[in-house]
Structures are given as C-alpha cells and as structure tokens.
Fold these 2 entries.
Entry 1:
Amino acid sequence: MPGLISARWHPAGFLEGQARLGSGRRGEILASFLQSDVQSDLETARMLLAETAAAERLVALALEEARAMEEEAPAAPPPRLPGESAAAG
C-alpha cells in the first residue's frame, strides 16, 4: 500500500522495502514481504504496491458508503413495552 510502504533499489543492488512513518505493524509486515519475496523483481514489486493500493481505495470507498447509508437511515422508533399500543407512543 503506497501509504504504508515504499520500495526502491538499494545502492548495493537489492530491492529495499521500507515501512513509512506511522504505518505501524502492517507497514513493517508489507515491507518485509516486499523485500524478501519480491526481491530482484521491481515490476512485481510495483504490481504488488498497485494492487494493494487499489484494495485500500475499495475498502475506503466501502466504508464511506456505509457511513453515508448509516446517516441516511431513519432513526428506529423506541421499542414498545409489552401491552403498550402503537397509539400510546
């Protein structure tokens, strides 16, 4: 996820994945995976970053949509007590 990690060629000749500041454990895990499992293949690293960024955008969009739906939903009426009629409300 571009917001969590970055990738670059190290001067020594290997692909280096780095967690970005504030990315926490997720950034560390992704950077570690990128550095170890996608080593020497910059195109695969770029594809991984692009795919995870797309997934991150979809999740953000879904959360935004859920919040909007929640705001639009009418408030539920208070529950009735046993024996209480609808007109008493």
Entry 2:
Amino acid sequence: MLQNTTEIEGLKKLDSPGPDGSETHFEQIAAFYVPQMSFFAQFEAKGGVAKIISVTLASLSLWKSSALAASWSMWLQELHSFS
C-alpha cells in the first residue's frame, strides 16, 4: 500500500505518457508480462477438468428433475469429448 505523497506522485509520473506521447512505463512492462498460472497448468495436466466433468456426470442420477439431468448429461458428455 502506498504510504506517502512521494510514492503516489512517483507512480503518477510512471503512468504518464512520455513527452512524445510514447507508452507509459506500466504499458511497457505489461507488453512483456507473461502470466504464471502454474496452478491452472497443473490442474489441466493432471486431468482436473475431466475429473470435474465425470464427478458431475455421476451426480446427475441424484437430481430430482430427470429432464434437467438428461439435458445436462448431454452437454457434459459433449464437453468431455473436448477435454
């Protein structure tokens, strides 16, 4: 968290375009930023999506509305074919 006026003013300067209208410092950093989402990569690599779909398919037999369960079953089976 910003503690004082000097820090806030410094950030304002960084977020201001250059005199020639060039990108701000934050825009330059953002252009090279590569998100590190290792959790999602591991989730996908370990078959997490397929497991969630299979658990949901198994739970459909517990639903009170068989028409709704059948509709979801078709959708989930199609989704499973893509994972």
